[in-house]
Amino acid sequence: MFALRGIAVSLTFFVLLYAFLSLLVALAWRWLELLHATEKSLADWLFALRLLPLAASIAITLAFVVPSFQMLEPRSIHEDMGVMPLALGACALLLIAWGCFRVITAQTTTSRVVARWLEGAHPLDAGAEAVTFRSRREAPPLTLVGVRSPRVLVSESTVALLSSDELHIALKHELAHVRSRDNLKKLVFRFSPFPGMAKLESAWSQAAELAADDAAVSNRHDAVDLAAALVKLSRLVPVEPAPACTVGFVTGSISARVARLLAWDEAGTTRPTRVHSWYAIPPVLAALACLLVTYGPALALTHEVTEWIVR
Amino acid sequence: MTKVFSIFGSGSRQLGPFERQVLQALWARGSSTVRELLADGQIRQAYTTVMTTMDRLYKKGLLDRVAEGRAFRYTPRHTAEELQRVAALEGIRQLLGSGDTSSLPLSYLVEALSAHDAQLLDELQRLVERKRRELESREDEDQENQDRENEDRGQR
């Protein structure tokens, strides 16, 4: 009974904190756009912010709620488990189950669709670092698929339509997505559902595309080739919508991407600065130090809060 | 806002050209009396015509008004963007509701969107080609300058 009560209280705390932080992130994420940061930094920060509610809720529950219950809750008393912890605990379990279901569905759908796209495909020797396949005409023009072993699929139409320089730079764009593990990030988004996060995910997707453009391009010729490839492949209408765990080359606002590439500045003087993630290290270290000093009182406070919630 | 739908919905209550002109003048000014609007000089109509038109727009739910002396001060109830959005939505809804075969109007919409997309892509394609030509001509110029410098050095 003690263990069951502990689980219910922890899950209750987790789901309440998750909902609160998600709501906060869904309302406040647009402030990040005020940062005059590179697209790579912006994409990283948007991803971190999207992940924050889940990560913080798990960390705080494991670091505070579980130990405070273990240490401060008397085992001898036969306290009835209220309706509130039972209901919210069930909500938390449903949330986790829903997240798992979304991940599994996305994975299986992607595997099924990709298997169909790969029928009759053969490796393409395009000088790329990742496994690249030349797929059927009906497959999407240029797509990155897979999480554990990413592959780039290039359709017959794409090979016919693009010049070798354009194809090379378009593949470099997809390889930038491989290095950023963007398919894995999409899967993580699916594991932590919350209403109102679609705009944040869409902003991340656009920033990730622009970051991949930046990573692929190293001079003005590359920029023009990539813009040309984008325009050409935009004319190929996909036969079916792409499944969740794929990153298509023709994604986001095409006109904005093309305009940005055509204005590509070789000197890089007008480009925004990269906001390094190590800027977050001092506040994190400070928070950890505070945590160590105040851990005991914090556990007592957490226990009081959980008692108040479940009462 | 629901009343605005009906304005765009029924033909008899749609906005006329002069009503649109008055509305645009009010959007530009923010709020105005009939006399202020006429004093601007953008509208050249009789006082009573403008007054009747503004009264009609008020009754259609597009303007708010407050008494100011013996006249009224009118303010647009919606922004231009809001009205455009509603008009577009209503237009699409009417299109989808027309026709006996339900999929047919949707196909017109897809056709119009595809034509718009193709136009946009043509425009982008032209921009890319222009940029490519610019780069090539700049490189040619650089090459010529380099050759000239080499020749000068050789002559010296």
SSE blueprint and pairings:
The complex is a heterodimer of chains A (311) and B (156).
Chain A: H1 2-28, H2 39-72, H3 83-117, E1 122-123, E2 131-135, E3 142-145, E4 151-155, H4 156-161, H5 164-180, H6 182-191, H7 198-216, H8 220-234, E5 246-248, H9 254-262, H10 281-293, H11 295-310
Parallel strand pairs in A: 2-4
Antiparallel strand pairs in A: 1-2, 3-4, 3-5
Chain B: H1 2-9, H2 17-29, H3 34-40, H4 47-59, E1 63-68, E2 71-76, H5 80-97, H6 103-155
Antiparallel strand pairs in B: 1-2
Helix pairs in contact in B: 1-5, 2-4, 5-6
Q: Could you report the average pLDDT of chain A, rounded to the nearest whole number?
A: 85
SS summary, helix count of chain A: 11
Q: What oligomeric state is this? A: heterodimer
Largest sheet of chain A: 5 strands, mixed
How are the strands of the largest sheet of chain A arranged?
A: 1-2-4-3-5
Give the overall form of chain B.
elongated
Number of strands of chain A: 5
- Rg of chain B over CA atoms, rounded to whole Å, is 28 Å
Q: Under CATH, the topology of the largest domain in chain B is which?
A: Arc Repressor Mutant, subunit A
Chain-averaged pLDDT of chain B: 80
Beta-strand residue fraction of chain B: 5-15%
Percentage of residues in helical conformation of chain A: 55-70%
* Class per helix and strand makeup of chain A: alpha+beta
**The CATH homology group name of the largest domain in chain B:** Winged helix-like DNA-binding domain superfamily/Winged helix DNA-binding domain
Total of domains of chain A: 1
Question: What is the number of domains of chain B?
Answer: 2
Q: What is the 3D shape of chain A?
A: elongated
CATH 2nd-level architecture of the largest domain in chain B: Orthogonal Bundle
Distance between termini of chain B? 81 Å
